Amino acid sequence: MTNSTHSLLDALGVHLPTAGDLTVRSPIDGGVLAQIPTASRGDMQAAIGRAHEAFKAWRVVPAPKRGELVRLFGEELRAHKAQLAQLVSIEAGKVTSEGLGEVQEMIDICEFAVGLSRQLHGLTIASERPGHRMMEQWLPLGVVGIISAFNFPVAVWAWNSALALVCGDACVWKPSEKTPLTALATQALFERALKAYRAAGHAAPDGLSELIIGRADVGEALVDDARVALVSATGSTRMGRAVGPRVAARFGRCLLELGGNNAIIVTPSADLELAVRGILFGAYGTAGQRCTTTRRVIAHESIHDALVERLDRARAQLPIGSPVEPGTLIGPLIDAQAFDAMQFALSAAREQGGQVSGGERALADRFPEAYYAVPALVRMPAQTEVVCHETFAPILYTLKYKTLDEAIALQNGVPQGLSSAIFTTDLREAEAFMSAAGSDCGIANVNIGTSGAEIGGAFGGEKETGGGRESGSDAWKAYMRRTTNTVNYSSELPLAQGVKFDI
Ligand code: UN1
């Protein structure tokens, strides 16, 4: 580990063990950052036990008081934003501005959650019976298990935990094995917030937010434990296919945030300048490793060639380099496996009639142990099998269309349903795209790209994306249980539906 990473971890309050079976590498140069021990199934079960006890105490703390803890955590994040962001760059390979953006997303959700802590409201419902009142309440749910992926190593956890904590739940976090250091740093910041909360005279139980670093068996222990009321899992569709049925088998709740295969439709009336910028960030930002990454462009035949040529020229000039160096826009892929998957997809695309530009390995001389790739653009003759598959890499497939109906059918013609966008200045096209017969995704944008959603909206998608919604809007309801209460304040006992049962 370099001295700078060491001092960064120190500043964030992380004291690493000196040995362990998990080797943590930086995708920047492939160098070893740390060796840390992994937990066992038993450790996970013990953590769930602590969280379950914590839940019992936390659920009766008034929600605005719970919000105060999340407010303090947001303050820690503000104070350590630059350091945590730098660690995100080192461990996940994000360019500086995106690392900062990730921590900003955590701060934003904390603020949203603090406001929400005074708004966890239910309805009052008209009763058909005289002297009766009906209402619904939202009550704390239980332990929330959070399984997060390497590409948003800390923000996605924050979306879940900030809401879960104000909702009165306790959390158990299993981060990606590729990014345990950012998880440890986040946990250390949370513990500082907890200390400040207690120092201000508030009571908070131990075990409110447990972090367990481990392999798949530890994730399975989380998924299978009946004390975990909600499993919120972010990752591949393959992972979701394994998690979903196991949680369902024990009647637990699942919030799945899985793969995307996001498209941008570009119509003849589009502002092409805007479209080019939106597509470049969507397709190649984060080196194509967002679930919201733009993977397909569906362009009208009248503008297709001009648009694709512009994209291809701009693509070839995107600065690839170490994510912590100024000016870099394209950082590394997470590891060799990701690079291999990219090459595999590109050769499949060639076999399926695609014309590939870019995609080669970059900077191999400077970083022989790391995997940088030239962003790829593939002109496809049709939406073939490889295009229907999510490859977590900077590959953009381009397709042509004649009618908007055809474009929407192509856009919807993949198994995933996370994000989508249209670039158009035609009101009819924009509205049709967002309508019931339009995009089938959880996110449908107009004149912006597919990625980079704000936390205020509900985030998630349909079909193989898993159907869950996280973050803003009323996504908080997934972290609570609803009770319907009917209160009789009369001295009669009328039955609903006019039923008589006179004794
Ligand atoms: C993810 O890639 O798992 O909309 C989440 C975005 C980010 C979140 C992406 N706010 O691209």
What is the domain total for the residues? 2
CATH class descriptor of the largest domain: Alpha Beta
Please tell me the CATH architecture of the largest domain by its name. 3-Layer(aba) Sandwich
Radius of gyration: 24 Å
What value does the average pLDDT take? Answer: 97
Query: In which range does the helix fraction lie?
Result: 25-40%
Query: Which hetero compounds are present in the coordinates?
Result: 2-aminohexanedioic acid
Pfam family, one: Aldedh
Subunit structure: Homotetramer.
Protein name: aldehyde dehydrogenase (NAD(+))
Domain Aldehyde dehydrogenase: 22-483
Q: How would you summarize the topology of this molecule?
A:
Layout: H1 3-11, E1 22-25, E2 32-36, H2 41-58, H3 63-79, H4 81-92, H5 96-116, E3 124-125, E4 132-140, E5 143-147, H6 155-166, E6 170-174, H7 180-199, E7 209-211, H8 216-224, E8 228-234, H9 237-249, E9 253-257, E10 262-266, H10 272-284, E11 294-300, H11 304-316, H12 336-351, E12 355-357, E13 361-362, E14 372-373, E15 376-379, E16 395-401, H13 404-412, E17 416-417, E18 419-423, H14 427-434, E19 443-446, E20 458-459, E21 462-463, E22 470-471, E23 480-488
Parallel strand pairs: 5-6, 5-8, 6-7, 8-9, 10-11, 10-18, 11-16, 15-16, 18-19
Antiparallel strand pairs: 1-2, 3-4, 4-23, 12-15, 13-14, 17-21, 20-22
This protein binds 2-aminohexanedioic acid (UN1).
